[in-house]
Structure formats: C-alpha cells, structure tokens
Prior knowledge:
By secondary structure, chain A is mainly alpha-helical. Chain A has 23 helices and two strands. Helix content of chain A is 79%, strand content 1%. In chain A, strands 1-2 form a two-stranded antiparallel sheet. Chain B is mainly alpha-helical. Chain B is rod-shaped. The chains are: A mainly alpha, B mainly alpha. Chains A and B meet through α5, α10 and α13 of A and α1 of B.
Amino acid sequence: MNTGILIAVLIYEVVIILGVGLWLAKRSASRPHQEGDFALAGRNLPMPVIAITLALTVLGTAHILGIFELAWFLGAAAVWFSIAHVILLVMVCLSTGLWVRRLGLTTVPEILDLLYGRVTRLIVSCTMAGVVFGILTIETQGIGIIISSMTGWSIRNGAVVGAILGICYVVFAGMKEVGWLNLVNAIVMYLGLILATIFLAFRLPGGNYDSVAEYYTSSGNDFMLSIYGTPEIFFAFALGTTIAVVFSQGINQMLMQPCMSADSEKTIRRALWIAAPLNGMFGVFAVVIGLTAKTVPEFAALGPKVAATTMLVNYLPPWLAALLLASFLAAILSTFAMTSLAPATIFTVDIYKNLYRPKATEADMARVMRIMIIILAVIAMTVAAFLPPILAAMNWLFSWLVPVFWVVVFGLFWKRSSAVAVTTLVAAWIANSAWSFSALPQMLNMADVPNAYVTLAVTLTVGIIGNLMASGRGGFFKAAEYRSRLNEQAAATAE
Amino acid sequence: MFWSIFIDSLALILAILAVGWLVAYLIHRRSQ
C-alpha cells in the first residue's frame, strides 16, 4: 500500500470537492434559483470552460485506463479511441451541438418528442439512460483500478470507495461545479501526463523509449508501434470505434449538456480548437505509457488492467505519481459525475416531471436528481465488479445509440415520420441484440465485424427506404414551427 | 517511438480539423 501517495490523492480530491464545492454552493445560495439552474448552470458558461468541459467530459476511464489496457493488445492503434473523439468533437462543435442549442431544449429525448412525439421519446429515453448508465459502470471500474494501483486492494473494493467520492463530487452543486472544476483538473492532468512521460523515459535504459521500440520490433510486432496497426486492426478497431463513437456520442446527453450551457454558438465553434487537440493528443501519451508497461516484466505480470498505473506509482517520483493519479481520478470523477447526472436528468425531466408531477418545482427536481444519482452509483458499483474489458464494453454500449443519431438527423433535415423513426430504431436494436447474443456473426462468417457497423447499416437501410416510401411532415429546420420558435426565443431574450 | 506516434497523431488530428472546417464551410455556403 502506497500510503503517502494515497493520502496526497485523497487530500487533493477532498480539497477540490469540499473547498471549491462549498465555495460555489455559498455563491449560488445568495442568488435566486432559475429554471434549469441545477443541470445547466444558467446557460452562460464561457468558452474556456465549454472547451475543457467538452474535452474532459469524454476523457474518463476509456481514454486513460481503456487505452492503457488496449495498447497491450493493439499497440499504438489504441490511439484511435482518441482520434474517434476528435472527429466526434468536430461534428458536435460544427453541427449537432449547434442544432440542439437552436432548439432550446433540455434533454435529447425532448428533441425526439418535438420531432416525433411521445412514444419515440420514451423508448429512446430508456435506451439512452441505459447506455449512459453502462458508461457509469465502466467509470466505476476505472475508479477502482486507480485506487487498487495505490493501495493494492482489489479493484472491486476500490470502486466502492471511489463511488462514494463521486457522489460527493456531483451532489454539491451539479453542472456548474463540474464545469469550473474541469478547468482546474485538465491543467493539472495534462501537465502531470507530459511530465510523467518525460520522467518515465529517464527510468528506462538509455533514458528514452528506444528500448520499448526494440522490445516490439525484435519480437516481430512492429505493427504495435504504428497508429494505423494492421489492416485488420484498422478495420475492426480504428474504423469501428470511429463509427461507434461519432454516431452515438454525437447526440448523447453528456456532450449536448455543455453545448446547451454555452453563452453562444460562436463559443461552441471556437471551443473546438481547444477541445479537439486536447482530447486527441491525450491518447498519444496514454498509448506510450501502455506500450511501456508491457515491456517491464514486474508490471507486465499484473496484467493489462493495472500494469500501467502500477508502473506509474512505482517509477515516478512520489509527488508526480500523486499529482498524476489524483488528476486521473478527478478526470474519471468528472465523467462519473456527467454519467450519473445525465440519466438522473433524463429520469427527473422526462419521467418524474413529464409523466408524474408536471408542477414540480426546481427544488423538487434537484432533490429527485440527487436521490437518483445515489441509487445509480450504488447499482454501478455492483455491475463494475464483473470487470468487462473497457474499450470493448464502450464500443458495444455506443452501438445502441447509432440509430438515435440518424433518426434525429432525418427528422431535422428530411422528413418527420414517427412510424419510420420507431421502425428504424427497433430494427437496429433487434439487429444489435442478434449480433451480440446469437450465433449470427459466426454463421455469416463475420465474427470480427463490430456491432457499430451492423447498427449503422440497418439504420441507414431502414431509415432511407422508410423515409422515401412514407409520407410525413418535412424536416423541422425547414418548417414554419421552427421559425416561430426562433422568434419566440428572440422575444424572450429581449425581455 | 514517442515522437513518431506523436507526429503521426498530430498530423492526423490537424487533417481532421481541416476537413471538418472545409465541409462545414461548403455546407454553409450552399445554404446561403
């Protein structure tokens, strides 16, 4: 057990959570609450906070520990998980984030209600909440891995402690706290990661990474050093993860929420220039560290999940190990916060207020959200105990949302037919279930084809043919309803 | 090893940003 590092990390988390959280709570207590305050930070977050939040919201366990784990098997090509997020951020900041903001709504299921009605909204709400909850279980596993690397405890026990920290982190002040704290964490984590990569090199023979490269080339594994890997890796992982990430997170609550909190569209577009490289280049450092861990026998013996983090705890100077792990943990906690806040928001707005108590006040909704966050975290701890491979699990979760993205795009720009929307969603989900749980992939000799390809193919086929054949109202952005909405919003802002 | 992965990734990211901006610009021009 590395007590010194553990204590330093816990002090960092507690000072940030208690210190900054209490300060923010005191500040907002002196102002009257507005509708949407808890979840959306009053829709006035400035550009640096939006950029860092966009970059860091999707920089959790998968980017750090998932890449460490996958570099073990695929080498440098594991960086494609980060590259996929660069493409995603380009799409969010230049299209989907802007479209969603123009609609002026709170949750993505509300967009579906606007385009297609209640049934579509409800079935998508359930699926989205399930997917984001699945990501929450991965984040919980991630917290467990970090704590395990410092203490020697099992990942499971680490997850319990970490989930409690996560609940404290988010319950204090909701979105606004996550926004500002992300800025601090991002700076610390990036500096820590760059320093770690430098210091790690000094611990290796020759003071550089040549010995690591030599390890892979001498064992005939040159492909591990190229970000493009082999053609099989490129097709199955690089492109597969790009499709899964771009068409699921492009319309996912977790990224839409910061866009809805921005003070203008220009802010979102400008944020891209910070968010995309920040998120993308992170993967480079993670991959180098992951590749190195496998070449050191004492850490390689621990297996792909904890080899890299344990190596960092042992090889880095204690102050740097503590800083780095504390900032990783904070980054994972911020994703933990978003992935518990997002389904809690969907439940509170779409189910509690929409179906059960339409007259619920902002205070009622804040209370329900806090209760939901705790319930979700407790269930997540239990599921995390099964320790699924991180990036494989993420890509599988993402494949469920691919049809949601396209149904929204068709509805905004082409045609609004509820029948086609529901048929497309259900067809894609049936295909995904069959691909995941039956022998169909093996029967078709396509066992290596990732689920995201399957859901994309079914979505586009059913969606395009369906919209060509069916009648329905035109795309929402071309409709008179949209123009009158814009006029209402402009009038409301002027008041 | 580090620098080759770093440079390849940075080049790819910049290319993606450039393509993204170009596509957005062309779509914006077409809709005007």
